[in-house]
Request: fold
Amino acid sequence: MEVVLNVLRKLPGMDSQSATFTLDLPRASTVLDALNQAKWSQDGTLAFRSNCRNTICGSCAMGINGKASLACGTRLADLAKTAPGPITITPLGNLPVIRDLVVDMKPFWQGLTSIAPALKPKPQTTDQESLQTPENRAALNQVSNCIQCGACYSECNAVTVNPEFPGPHALAKAYRMVTDSRDGAIASPPTMPRAAASGAAPAASNAPASAPWRWPRWSRSAASSRPYSRTKPPLPAEPSATAKPWLTWSRKAAGSTSGSLVCRWWAMIWGVWLAWCPWGSIC
Reply:
């Protein structure tokens, strides 16, 4: 099948420009196959990233017809069905372009490292491994499938508005760590300082007095601490069986020491009544 690629190219110190490549490839080929063919047969200076060619490493993420996708996982035949015509290839968004389709992933990795993406195990008193039930592991399957390709970071509007936002990939990794039953990272959640009763401005926390107050940056350690406990409240204490034995006597208590004493006490009173009462035989 004949394929036309419109690749948005950019050289260092120059403006972006579009380059067109016309190729003849099998219908089972992918966008990555088309880019390799264009590089090998028409222009060897075309720059892009690729590695595994099997949608595992995430290196070949790029914009394909206006959507961030993996080039090795996007087939040309599928694109011909949904959007016939030339295929537009662009670099990932929200990331600075180094050359052609190669972007600088430094902001992407900085957002990931800002949430401490590592398991912090709980302290153990024995040498036994920290085991995990199949149910606890099943809760991590969805977020554990992230291959850090950067496609979600490229499409995230929150990153476009606020570059300090760590990104959806960082939130997914943070959720994966917090949900892990073996994780023991606990920290105090961020709190907003309250204004004084006189109407004074709130004092900044962990910041110089001259700096304006701002919300603390989100982190996985802060998110792992929950203000509300999930444990059930303790049950109210039961009344003591020996406090008022004549009111709390029962068949169960009769088998205990306190129950036996109660029975003996009532038996003694009944015996005295029969001995002194002139009508004891009738009673």
User: Anything to note?
Assistant: The CA atoms of residues 30 and 74 lie 5 Å apart. The first helix runs from residue 31 to 41.
